[in-house]
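Appendix B, Record 12. Input sequence as logged:
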Amino acid sequence: MKQKQSLMIFATITMLTTLLVPMFLMQITQAADPSGWYKTVDGVLDTDYYTLYPYETDKNLKIGFSKFGELINSEDNVGLEYGAVDPFAPAAGSAVASSVPKRMWLQGWLINITYTHRTKGERNVWATALHGDGTDYGKDWIRVDFWNDDDEWWDSYGVEDPRDPGYLIYGPDPYGSSLEYGGRKTNGTAVTEDIEVLYDGPREFIAVCRTTLYDHTVFESNSTTSDIALVEIAITIRFDKVKKEVTLLKDVKSLLVEKEGYLMKIEFSNRGEVDLGTEATGYSSYAHFYTDGITGEQPSEGQATVYNANWTLIKTEDPTEEDGYSGFSADGPYPQDTNATFDVAQAISSDKKYVWSASFWPSLSDWSIDGWNQWWHSLKAADPHYIDGSTTEPFIPFYIGEWDFILHHTLDIEGRTQFRGVTTYGIVDYHDASDSSLIIDSEVQYYLDEKFNPWDLYDAVHKKNTTRWYDTTTSTSYTFNPTALGTSYLWDQYSTFSEKITKGGVLLVRGTDYTLAPDGSGVSGMPIGTKEIRWSSNVWYETYDDTKFGPGRYEWIIVGRDAATIDSAGAALVAASLKQKNKTIGLAGADMFDTETANQMPYIMNKFGTGATMTDYKDTIGRAALNDNWCTYWPVASSNTLGVGGPLANMLSYYANDFTDAIYGLTEYAAGSVYDGKITGVTCWNRAWPGTDYRVYESSTTTGYAVISTYLDINGTVIFEVWGHWGRDTYYATQWLHGDAARNINPGILQLEESPRGLTSIILKINYGTDPDHPTFSIPELLGTISETEWIHTYTNIYTGCEETETKGGIHDP
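Logged structural output:
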């Protein structure tokens, strides 16, 4: 079968291009793009309250992006800015590096679609949003539309590709105007919507950028009457403002109707230039691409993740299948059913001050860290797949991470209509990364673990087996009682609950500022002065002389000071639920201090203001923070904490709302968006596709919704929370967690101990029906940090002894 693939390399076509390009040379004059096309979001880490985070907190990551989904704000000249570097929009700050003009700011995506139309035969449509094309930058969509684009691909290749000029689709007189260069090009029709900000909280930012791509079948006409809808691309940008990375959820949804065509072979890639440096040091770096590799040709260096094939609708293409598309992909299919992987590109600045990384889930079909010769086209299996520079390093990397997959028409009975790929980008200070020794920087690894192997609900209810302690000392040494977990808990890694010692609010570094005894019995060599010591143990004690092994403890169970009584009743059920898992509770308390002496009890949230309202427990930009400790011996920050009641009723839930994967759309941060006043799953696959909604949930008199979620913050604090949209939803969610013997409702907490790894949040649906005192339950959303899943769960009901099967989640029923 002949395929019209206008993005393949052939020498004869290059010659044709060379002859044609001089015809289109023109004077480049760059008009400013509308400011509304771009947005910049500032990080807040350097003013936040994470004194226990084991890495630098003196700088923030700042991101800029366009409505086209590029990580470049061409108005503010910001891309991925951290300290002195901005590898996507150099140099850092508002200035433009003299050696890297804006036309060379290449960052974004490329899609290449090959399909067979019912009547028009084989078609190929591509689009790329890269901000620049080496000749010019910015502008709206440009259509590259030349006279012989209907010829066979071997005759027309090079006539239409992203290197070429074209006509502005949305200009005043597109085909009467001059040819243009710029950063957004297609040979079809692309329609990009305005940036939609969904949530902009004190620490969480969520926005979506959408582009719809059509096959434009009429030569030199701007009429869209005959355009054929192919796909919608939704790029959800999720930026945790206290982190040094940003996550992009990239969803591609089929719009092809069965009458027009049956399926589309799609090559969708992330790509861009990495200028990790300054004018003074230069922009070269040492780079390596850790990929799952080409069997028999490249080493398998894919990184392990819990997010396997159960977390996706379709896999990437299998290059060994005989399906008419051989030669497209170097490797696949991904994600794997078991032992799943993701890929990581890492660059180390030549002065060894900064480390840039990009991660890709699932593992890639094609890749390159030195893709300069392929910047303008999708990769095929025969193309170079560089995991190191093709010349002597350091060099200027150009990364390409491509997923190849097949989407079917919109009525496909197997639901093979949507693909998700996830990319994270980040920059950290250099610690221990090594290009020659193939070492991923320890802080980069911290973020990779947090994203792809997160603290999850299984950990929170089953694996959680530690207790957290707090003490102060003026001595230079200290003996832990009970004994700490020891050196098996690495000091600076995610989810290790190691000892953390501060002096005057400054974190001391193990091995530098003190020494931990090999058996974990204590520390020595600390500086003189008062130190605050926190450590974890897998034992608890009744007296200092009577230690015994314990099952793990939540130090706190917290309700809102101003919440209704119903939350307190729910807290009792949560505590009883944990008892079924042999977990203990340390203290119960409130989120805020009660000024009424008769009602005072321990509280855990930091008070910023002078009054007693919830506003007084927020700083000037709306951030809530945990106290360091209670009464100098109960840890708060870095402890294990249960919260009952939602963000409107409990400041602990308000705090966690900026981090969990199921959130409440607080009006002050979601006004005007579909999130406002509703519960939503941030990583849900539905992104307002035509005919669908955002999967947002709000309660009514007959139906309620609640969230059960967990998060481990960068201070090391475990948060496990249960809350509903309404108060009664909170109560009945805690009842589901506890179980109801009278109605043979198996405890949810026992089901969660068998939950899929990576499951961080569930949204619970409560059907009150005609008997609101005895509701029934179902789970429409099972969410992780990057995707959602469906869980067909078979379990034994402890009340009936019968085996029951329940299907949870809605990934296959969007």
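The chain has three domains: 11-31+111-452, 468-545, 553-808.
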